[in-house]
User: Fold this.
Amino acid sequence: MSFIRKSLLQLIFSGSFMKRWNDKLRPVEFWEVDKQAHKMMIAWLLYHQNNQDLSFAERAELGREIIEGGIFEYLYRLIITDIKPPIFYQIKSNPLHYRQLTEWVLEQLEPRVQPLGQEFWRRLSEYFQTDSHRTLAQRILSASHLYASQWEFSLIETINPWDEELEDIRHNFERSLREHGDILGVTELVSDGQNELTRFVRQCGQLRFQKRWSQTPRIPETSVLGHLFIVACYAYFFSLVTGACQVQSQNNFFAGLFHDLPELLTRDIISPVKRSVQKIGTLIKEYEDKELSDRVFALLEAGGYDTVASRLAYFLGTDVGSEFVATVHLQGEVKEVSRDLLLGEYNRDEFDPKDGEMLKVCDSLAAFIEAYTAMRNGINTDQLQQAVWRIRNDYSQTVLAPNLHVGSLLADFD
Assistant:
């Protein structure tokens, strides 16, 4: 039986402390978890562009490989945090040294990850112990990584005119992305930036500038973008533990990855504000839906990316009024269903299930860990204390599966 441990949740969150480009002058701090979110958003777009000619089973398998590959690479990066990329690539070019480093990384990951189940651990171990890293999924992840890193670099380049490394870095990005030009969507991304796909990717990247809990000091400060990746990882892990089918697990991950996209348009409005005035939550939701339609869905549809827009709408729950309800596709329509049915008769790939109720738990759990970590780091405000108390209280009796009691999981955070 698989289960979730506190140590795994905290490991995923630890990317919020991990600085990027920390040997360069930066306009803002760049954090690893933000880059990973942007990378996986891009990977989702490239996945859609490159799965049209695949069978249903092949699309599902490609989606799993992209999600798990992205998570595996992130976990690896968290362990080797002190090794700069140029040094890591030198190590990787030497098979013996890379194997020795990988064995050590897996030793560090095993006690935290193996509780998710032997199959997941086997896939993670094999991912770094085989040389077949040129699959379509791997190349999509590679292109997404390059573009997300290049996007960060574009913000740094102009304020570091004296840095002699910058020209080589820029040329390496350009050359490496050209090598991925056969992947559908990459050419559009590296164009002049005026096409709709690139504009959407840039919109997503802007979420790194929006800080959560903006009126509350915290260590670390987390962005909306980084929060999305954390929720997506938690949702995927919970899906494994609850026995969700392959498509449901993927839908839960991608729904988590995009669930706060409306905050690009409205900024982060904390829950107490939404609940403070009667009907204000409904008004905010109506405004978010209108802005999404005008500035995101219309943008994608204008570029011919109708299927991307419709899929994004499904993740955001626009057809049922909320991203936090359980849904399936029945006879060509999106239907809200009970969670019991979702994990029962509708827990099959052909129903395209999505567990929005579980997603809400993961969203709250990520907020809990943000507040809990800030308090452990010496920031002890009323807002943080109230958030920790409220989330503990709200989920003290929540059971998502026989092996997933949320109250017990929260109790581990003493």
Notes: The mean pLDDT is 91. The beta strands are 19-20, 30-31, 326-330, 333-336, 354-355, 399-401, 404-405. The CA atoms of residues 25 and 93 lie 29 Å apart. DSSP finds 20 helices and seven strands in the chain.
